[in-house]
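Appendix B, record 7
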Amino acid sequence: MLMKTLKIIGFAVLGLITTALIWTMTLPSEGSFARSTTIKAPPETVFAELNSFQRFNQWSPWFKIDSNTQYKY
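Structure tokens (predicted):
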């Protein structure tokens, strides 16, 4: 009785693993994610703000997460 139960459980686990492997092989090999935003400012203003590493902390969300980070220019 116990062996029969273990055999059924073993085949069920093997079936789940096989199904998962077959399913993962049908997925695409590459993926992509894109995000965009619209900035209401002329391109020259945006470029001047983003082009300077000294002004990085004024717009970077990472600075708000860890304000103890030190940057060297």
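Remarks on this record: The two ends are 73 Å apart (CA to CA). Residues 2-26 form the longest helix (25 residues).
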